[in-house]
Design brief:
With about 325 residues, this protein is of the alpha+beta class. The protein contains nine helices and 16 strands. Strand 4, helix 4 and strand 5 form a beta-alpha-beta unit.
């Protein structure tokens, strides 16, 4: 549940001025189309709290990017994405690419994982609380990540590009789970990830990778999974980088070396669900300003839940400290 306080707002962020204009992008396909059932609720809440907001519905994959570019060009002060991590990430990428410094991202959870929102305490079961936070207009400055290396959407249809990310970039086991989840018809939300992840613990073969932190040194091994996080959570609530915050000026690489024994993998999975995997044998989390990852062939990887394919064998990532303004509850932990 989102907890919103009013004390010490200056320490927690800023307050948007009255008269701000909101452009709202709703993605009915988010959350394996569960988002359709939430749209009417969000529409009513938005009309009551922000009656002057401009609302647009996406009708095809990736259309939120075009809407975000339009909103930025038209001078809207707040661009709101209703969806999950993929929708939020696509909108944020276009806002950052616009170069505008006085635009803020608003997020309303209606996706499968909603992991970026967990960093602020959002509960996807409480649309009214999320809209209330949006209407109150507290803005926090957060870090974002950037995949500097070129990649394309996994299904094709796009030019190679660099990409910003809000929450996580994942390789290996992460991709196997996403592929498996795409074929699951009767599961949703956190249960979807957990069930498909358990299946892949017994099927995924592992992969080789070399990890080079920006500060120097390297790690090279056969891995089960490798993630580079801006936030703490991924996979529907797994605290994969327990010490991370979205305003610590770092990316956090979690490397889990492969355990051939499926039971050893299962023990790691159970520990990771509670954030207790750190310190286990073959598990390491490194915080740095950036990382270079090298593979035997151009890898497939996920950017905030959307699968992409690298152009080359090397993928370079870096943090952009304080690059994005987000409408969110005020922080009470000393972060921005």
């Amino acid at each position: 549940m989102v907890q919103v306080g009013h004390a010490d707002v200056r320490a927690a962020g800023e307050l948007l001025t009255e008269g701000r204009r909101h452009f709202v992008i709703l993605n009915p396909a988010a959350g394996r189309r569960r988002g359709r059932r939430r749209l009417e609720s969000y529409r009513r809440l938005l009309e009551a709290s922000l009656p002057e907001a401009t609302i647009r519905f996406t009708t095809r994959a990736g259309e939120e990017r075009a809407f975000a570019e339009q909103a930025a060009a038209d001078g809207y002060e707040v661009v709101v994405a209703v969806g999950g991590d993929g929708t939020w990430s696509n909108v944020a990428d276009r806002l950052l690419a616009s170069g505008r410094e006085n635009v803020a991202l608003g997020i309303l959870p209606s996706g499968t994982g909603n992991d970026f929102g967990r960093n602020f305490g959002y509960d996807p079961r409480s649309p009214a609380d999320a809209v209330r936070v949006l209407a109150e207009g507290h803005v926090r400055t957060v870090d974002v990540g950037r995949v500097e290396s070129l990649s394309t959407p996994d299904q094709g249809g796009g030019e190679p590009e660099s990409r910003h990310f809000l929450n996580v970039v994942g390789f290996g086991f992460d991709i196997a789970v996403i592929d498996a989840a795409a074929g699951a018809r009767f599961l949703k939300g956190e249960l979807l990830y957990k069930v498909t992840a358990l299946q892949q613990l017994f099927r995924f073969e592992g992969f080789g990778a070399r990890l080079e932190p920006a500060s120097g040194g390297f790690r090279e091994a056969r891995h089960l999974m490798l993630t580079v996080s801006n936030g703490r959570y991924f996979g529907g609530g797994f605290p994969i980088a327990p010490a991370a915050t979205v305003s610590d000026g770092l990316l956090h690489a979690c490397r889990i070396e492969d355990a051939v024994n499926p039971l050893a993998r299962l023990r790691l999975f159970n520990r990771a669900e509670r954030g207790r995997h750190v310190g286990s044998a073959g598990v390491e989390v490194l915080g740095d300003a950036g990382f270079r990852l090298t593979f035997a062939a151009p890898p497939r990887f996920e950017v905030d839940g959307d699968v992409r394919r690298a152009v080359s064998e090397t993928v370079e990532l870096r943090v952009l400290p304080g690059a994005l303004r987000v409408v969110a509850p005020p922080a009470h932990d000393g972060t921005r």
